[in-house]
Amino acid sequence: MLRRMIFFCLLTAVPFSLHAESLGALEGRYKVAPSSVIHFSVAQMGGQAIEGRFKSFSGQFVLGGEDASRSSVEFTLSPGSVEAVDPRVEEFIKSEAVFDVATYPKVSFRSTSVKRTGDDTAVISGRLTAKGETRDTKFNIRYEGKSAGGLKFHVTGKMSRALFNMDVGTPVYSNMVVLDMELIGKRN
């Protein structure tokens, strides 16, 4: 009985002590690793969603340890690196009707605030620039532990195509782009 009680106390205490210790130990500058995955989907009325990923991106972030307000994120991706199941979809996404990669070869995000929402979650607010338009955007982030020599984060968010003059095909295609990212950060 005493062993079970000690074991239970250790099990309940370990996550709290590891988390508190890990936030301080994780403080610092990180670069987004090329092994990260930037996935997107756009729902289609009565059909299969358009899905794909972006292969070319770069970014860095600062973890402020216990004080999330000292954290920041900068991220850039190349919409010309889009990869989808159908090459025609890829070309359409690159075209003037959507990203217009000939004129606007980069999409960028710069955080304005990071607010902790839980032990391993936060909301990142910032400015997203695409196709010459800059808009306020929020992303939800969850720390998932260490992976491949770095830190692994699951990041989700939505982007209104209309706000960036990319709403061609609505309402057949949803105005909302759902972003689902697995980001690996390597310490600088």
SSE topology:
Elements: H1 2-26, E1 28-32, E2 37-44, E3 47-54, E4 57-63, E5 72-77, E6 82-84, H2 87-94, E7 107-116, E8 121-130, E9 133-147, E10 150-160, E11 176-187
> What is the CATH superfamily classification?
Lipid/polyisoprenoid-binding, YceI-like
Structural class: alpha+beta
Number of strands: 11
Please name the CATH architecture: Beta Barrel
Number of helices: 2
Which strand order do you get reading across the main beta sheet?
Answer: 1-4-5-7-8-9-10-11
Main sheet: strands, sense, barrel:
8 strands, antiparallel, barrel
Shape, per Cα inertia axes = elongated
Write down the overall mean pLDDT: 88
Overall helicity: 10-25%
| Named CATH topology | Lipocalin
How large, in whole angstroms, is the Cα Rg? 19 Å
Order of helices and strands: HEEEEEEHEEEEE
Quaternary structure: single chain
Distance between the first and last residues' Cα: 48 Å
Tell me the fraction of residues in β-strands, as a range.
Answer: over 45%
CATH class: Mainly Beta
How many structural units, i.e. domains? 1
Model regions low in confidence, pLDDT < 50 over at least 5 residues: 1-21
Quick tags:
188 residues, alpha+beta, Lipocalin, 8-stranded antiparallel β-barrel, 2 helices, 11 strands, 51% strand, disordered N terminus
Descriptive overview:
This protein has 188 residues and is an alpha+beta fold. The protein has one domain (27-187): Beta Barrel (Lipocalin), CATH 2.40.128.110. Helices cover 18% and strands 51% of the residues. It is built from 2 helices and 11 strands. The protein has helices at residues 2-26, 87-94; strands at residues 28-32, 37-44, 47-54, 57-63, 72-77, 82-84, 107-116, 121-130, 133-147, 150-160, 176-187. It has an 8-stranded antiparallel β-barrel with strand order 1-4-5-7-8-9-10-11. It starts with a helix and ends with a strand.
